[in-house]
Write a structure and sequence with these properties.
The chain has three domains: 7-25 and 57-134, membrane protein fhac (Ubiquitin-like (UB roll)); 140-210, Ubiquitin-like (UB roll) (Roll), CATH 3.10.20; 213-320, membrane protein fhac (Ubiquitin-like (UB roll)). The protein is 23% helix and 29% strand. The chain is built from eight helices and 13 strands. A five-stranded mixed sheet has the order 1-4-5-2-3. A three-stranded mixed sheet has the order 6-8-7, with helices on one face. Helix 3 crosses helix 4 (96-108). The longest helix is centred in the middle third of the chain and has 17 residues, at 169-185.
Length: 322
């Protein structure tokens, strides 16, 4: 192959192995040997200077071929997506690292579950055979959660435009964000949708939903400065019984946390006229993902209360008692 840079000389062992999007590729040592310099002074190390990195060798790309989509109903669309993700084109010269970047870019397009590149040395240059496995056609989306607040019709409407088409994982993430916005709009601010936890060959996608469950409600008394301890480091003791506070809270252990409902609960606590401030902290439960304890930091009223069935909060102002 006169006048052409050989694949085996530049990328040792690569012609016999596939480049995969999943595992990292081992970088083979260069087989090229530098000629010694005629000037001995040029070989002397320069103190404090870092050795210059050797430029990666490049090879000429003669052809790029996408394989694995021969019988796919959306073959043309997926082939175009794979080509569009690649920087390597016929006539270009690329390094091994650039080829790995192309492979990762194809995978990141979201259309494929597996991507491999087989460089084949030829008389006119390197032929890149890109072997892809497309994601299945989306048929159904399942949400894995007990006592699901999200209506089934909302799920169907969200994915209606995607059913019957090849699953794109990037589009799936966008749809998941739409579902999460529904939760936030309804006040379920702790809800999180993750996944997919599983994608079946038949096109069934399973998503995990953690709606955010209340584990319990605790009361902690604070001083006027908002501290839970006094100058001696002792807990602040309130004059009010904790049940006076918790009876105004409608959220109970086991219920899905709802921000709107908690806001109404806080208004009722203020409405008693006994407290000047209420600070809410949501404490995650260790080893129980998705569960929280509602900690109510209470500042007892000493002044600023209004008569006539009104409550007063330093942070929220005056409002009518519920």
């Amino acid at each position: 192959m006169a006048g052409l840079l050989s694949l085996k000389a530049v990328w040792p062992l690569m012609g016999a192995a596939l480049l995969s999007a999943s595992p990292a590729l081992a970088q083979p040592a260069s087989q090229q040997v530098d000629k010694p310099s005629a000037d001995p002074a040029s070989q002397a190390p320069v103190q404090g200077a870092e050795p210059a990195a050797k430029a990666e060798p490049k090879v000429l790309i003669a052809e790029v071929a996408i394989e694995g989509l021969q019988d796919h109903p959306e073959r043309e669309r997926l082939e175009l997506a794979a080509y569009a993700a690649m920087a390597a084109t016929p006539g270009s010269r690329v390094t091994r690292s650039e080829l790995q970047t192309d492979l990762s870019a194809i995978y990141a397009s979201g259309w494929f579950s597996d991507v491999r590149i087989q460089p084949v040395d030829g008389p006119l240059g390197v032929r890149l055979v890109v072997v892809v496995v497309a994601n299945p056609v989306l048929q159904q989306v399942k949400l894995d959660s007990a006592d699901l607040k999200l209506p089934e019709q909302v799920v169907k409407d969200t994915f209606s435009a995607d059913y019957g088409k090849t699953l794109n994982l990037n589009a799936l993430q966008t749809r998941m964000q739409e579902l999460q916005r529904w939760y936030a709009d309804q006040g379920y601010s702790l809800a999180r949708i993750t996944g997919p936890s599983r994608v079946s060959p038949e096109g069934v996608v399973e998503l995990l939903v953690r709606q955010g469950t209340v584990e319990g409600v605790e009361v902690q008394f604070l001083n006027k400065e908002g501290s839970a301890t006094n100058d001696k480091g002792e807990p602040i003791r309130g004059k009010t019984k904790p049940w006076v506070v918790t009876r105004e809270v409608s959220l109970r252990p086991g219920q899905v946390f709802n921000r709107r409902e908690l806001e109404e609960d806080i208004k009722r606590i203020y409405g008693t006229g006994l407290f000047s401030d209420v600070k809410v902290t949501l404490k995650p439960v260790p080893a129980e993902p998705g569960k929280v304890v509602i900690l109510l930091g209470i500042v007892e009223q000493s002044s600023g209360s209004l008569s006539g069935g009104l409550g007063y909060s330093q942070s929220q102002g005056a409002f009518g008692q519920i």
